[in-house]
Design brief:
Elements lengths: L1 H35 L3 H9 L6 H13 L3 H14 L4 H13 L3 H14 L4 H13 L3 H14 L4 H13 L3 H14 L4 H9 L1
């Protein structure tokens, strides 16, 4: 008798889990369809209708609220996603979007630093950090970060171009020329690289 009850309970629980999974798949599917049609409010509602808390749902809601330009809500959902998965790099990349849109560059730098603690050689973040410091005319830090990218990707166009600009702004023309030439070897049609090389 006890065995039969256990079997019945197991079947009920399994059926419930399958139904929840089907509901989640349907909600995500609807959400993507609505997003494709730029109906962001409906895309959000499709996920909220599940009335469950998960990393994946919060991550997606953060993205959809960002597309809706509700940056405060977007940031909040990304924070919830990070509470559920503290080591997530993808959630941190998502979190940067609303923070940047709100103009909080200190928070952007803080998020990027958190990513580099988890993944010190992340080429995207190292490049972005280099660019941010370059715009601040902090050439020493800019060069430190862009050098990490070039070490791993010696033929990367953007990093070589940026390194050349950093060197040029410091008056180091021979070093700048080397990077601009490499950038042009990668993309001979780049007007940005051609114009930069003319300044040398």
């Amino acid at each position: 008798m006890k065995t039969s009850i256990k079997i019945i309970l197991a079947i009920v629980l399994f059926s419930g889990a399958l139904k929840a999974q089907d509901n989640a798949e349907t909600a995500f599917s609807k959400s993507y369809t609505f997003e494709y049609d730029t109906q962001y409010a409906k895309a959000i509602e499709a996920l909220l209708s599940l009335k469950i808390e998960s990393y994946e749902i919060n991550l997606r809601l953060g993205w959809l609220e960002y597309l809706s330009k509700d940056y405060a809500k977007s940031e909040n959902y990304y924070k919830k996603a990070l509470e559920l998965e503290p080591n997530s790099i993808e959630a941190r990349f998502g979190h940067v979007l609303p923070v940047y849109a709100l103009g909080n560059m200190n928070s952007v730098l803080s998020i990027y630093m958190d990513i580099l603690k988890l993944d010190p050689n992340n080429s995207i973040v190292n490049y972005r950090m280099a660019y941010i410091y370059y715009t601040k005319k902090d050439y020493a830090n800019a060069l430190t970060y862009v050098s990490k990218v070039i070490k791993a990707y010696p033929f990367d166009f953007d990093s070589n171009l940026l390194a050349g600009k950093i060197m040029l702004d410091q008056g180091k023309k021979p070093e700048a020329k080397k990077y601009f030439i490499k950038a042009l070897e990668y993309n001979p049609q780049s007007e940005d690289a051609k114009n930069a090389l003319k300044k040398v």
